[in-house]
Amino acid sequence: MLNQTDFYISCDKLSDVSADISPKLTRYLMRNILPQYAKELRKLPLRPFSAYSMHAESGILFRLSTLNDQAIHLTDVLARKNTIELGETCTAYNIQQVSKKNEMHETELFSSLAGKNFNLNIITPAMYRASGIISNAPVIQSYFYSVICRINMFSGIKIDFREFLSAYKSLIINSYSLSSTTYSLCQSCVPAVTGEMNITFSNDNIRSEKIVKTVLAYAIYSGIGSDTSLGMGGFSAEPVQ
């Protein structure tokens, strides 16, 4: 089961609430979950959750998505807190509101994206690794390799990346606007990209449409690219009427 929960977080001094709170919150969660589960997570090549933050009216919206039933433990840990202390200065942050946003079974992924025309948004800076080298090249399909790896690892669905690439070619890309940026990760700035694109599915290839829609719907939970558990690669796919 896929789950997504929003946490609205504020601080007594609002200027102290920054968008780089995601890596701090992830480290906080890893320190506060059950030790045995934390040990299991560290052994995995991919994390069964993603997290990113963005500015909200009264502070920060922190969105935590879990990709299997075990990972919901992270959400439960944070939901039980009213105040948390983060960073070297142990700044106190208040959890004002917890809102369960989405819950979906993997069999519902394709049907969850009804329609033919969609806006795809890279909400927080995204990057991917090619042969261990960080890249923010605007080759959008490359950012979904990690999504497919997570699908194959954490769900009962199996998708071949080469088949996805072939299906991706059937899309009609109507417009796109991408910008290079950087993201603070592990005390260094990495190159990344943000932006949006508008796509249309053609009417003559249902098989390709099912593959791409399944990957896009899953990416809403998993994020795209690398280090999605540390705030990178927040993603949305919105239908256009």
Describe this structure in words.
This protein is of the alpha+beta class and 241 residues long. A hairpin with a 4-residue loop joins strand 4 (83-86) and strand 5. It is globular and about 55 Å long. It is built from seven helices and eleven strands. The protein has helices at residues 21-32, 35-43, 72-79, 109-112, 145-154, 161-168, 206-222; strands at 2-11, 49-56, 59-66, 83-86, 91-104, 117-126, 128-130, 133-135, 172-185, 188-200, 235-239. The strands form three sheets. Strands 2-3-1-5-4 form a five-stranded antiparallel β-sheet. The chain has a four-stranded antiparallel β-sheet with strand order 9-10-6-11. Helix 6 packs across helix 7 (206-222). The model has no long low-confidence stretch (mean pLDDT 91).
The Cα radius of gyration reads: 18 Å
Counted beta strands = 11
Residue stretches low in confidence (pLDDT < 50, at least 5 long) are none
Strand content: 35-45%
Instruction: Give the distance, in angstroms, between the N- and C-terminal Cα atoms.
Output: 28 Å
**What integer is the average pLDDT?**
91
Write out the strand line-up for the largest beta sheet, numbering strands in chain order. Answer: 2-3-1-5-4
Helix content: 25-40%
Q: Which sheet architecture does the biggest sheet show?
A: 5 strands, antiparallel
Order of helices and strands: EHHEEHEEHEEEHHEEHE
Total helical elements:
7
Shape: globular
| Class based on secondary structure composition and strand pairing | alpha+beta
